[in-house]
Amino acid sequence: MITEQNLEEFKTLCDNIFTQIGRDMIGQKEVVEFSVIAMIAGGNVLLEGVPGVGKTRLVRTLGRVFSLPFSRIQFTPDLMPADVTGTNIIVKDEKGNSKFSFQKGPIFSNIILADEINRATPKTQSALLEAMQEHKVTVMGVSRPLDEPFFVLATQNPIEQDGTYPLPEAQMDRFMFKLIVTYPKMEELGRIVGMTQITMDEVADAACSAEELLRMRATAKEIPVAADVMNYAMRLTLATQPGSECPAQIAKKYIRYGASPRAAQALISAAKVRALMNGRYNVSYGDLNALACPVLRHRIKLTFEAVTDSVTADDIIHEIIAELGHAGDTPKAGETVKTAEKGEEQPVKRGLFGKKK
Known about the structure:
A hairpin with a 5-residue loop joins strand 3 and strand 4 (98-104). By secondary structure, the protein is α/β, with parallel strands linked by helices. Helix 2 (29-41) packs across helix 12 and helix 13 (285-296) runs antiparallel to helix 15 (313-324). It folds into two domains: 4-80 and 109-213, Rossmann fold; 223-354, Helicase, Ruva Protein, domain 3. Mean pLDDT is 85; it is low at 332-357. 43% of the residues lie in helices and 15% in strands. The chain is globular, with a radius of gyration of 21 Å.
């Protein structure tokens, strides 16, 4: 049962987290917010953006703010699975006898920065699958649990294709969010340049311990979800599947295959955290709409026709939301959303690319 004290403690910790992140990061408010939501909800995050927009700095800052052990793995074509998970080595015991001893790899940490993850071969990328989903690794037939909380925060550069290996769908599905890190605006760029002229060091302090983070996660799980809102999350997921019982019209044309059940799980888990961040005890339609793009954009495979028509995954997701009738509940960036009740709002339905129907 959620109490007023639980809500106040959650809100205070979130405020402190965002304050400390703001000491090292300028702009990218949506990316920062969604990254924190994913960490509280226990999900992994894929950050995609061109070089120099602050992806790696954000992950390092999150490690400092959450006061958790942090490992950075620089993915390269010659990286091997054992370089990630660890391996058995031969050592001498006190009597001089040889025996095998397990040498832990960098995956044995709480926060993993998988830098430029698409530069590693599929064999090495697959070494993360078990860790990301089950929070354990198996080496030489022996399974070893990873410490909790555990997160993989990966980065990739979308413009360089030479020497890269696209992430397989099975691995993409294990990321709760795919976040697009964009260029800063002029005012933000000026502040970034001014800040780095003084110091390039991160100055953020710890704002949340592992125990506090796990308490926040437990609190979020207690948030109730109304039957209508839960049903909407299921319909939103099924609408991306052309062969489902209730596909969206646009899905039949532009989607080869849609989001998996993990998408629905991610929507609900993340929406609970977002509701608490906004001081609410229940999940709204607006929470689901705000999270739809980061949850779904990497889980749907587009048809060739979508590519030729220059239709993006985000375009399709916005159209699906409009078709389901809750587009008017989608909040603006940073806006606090109230729970939508029947008859309270009459959302304007919009077609693809924002045209009114």
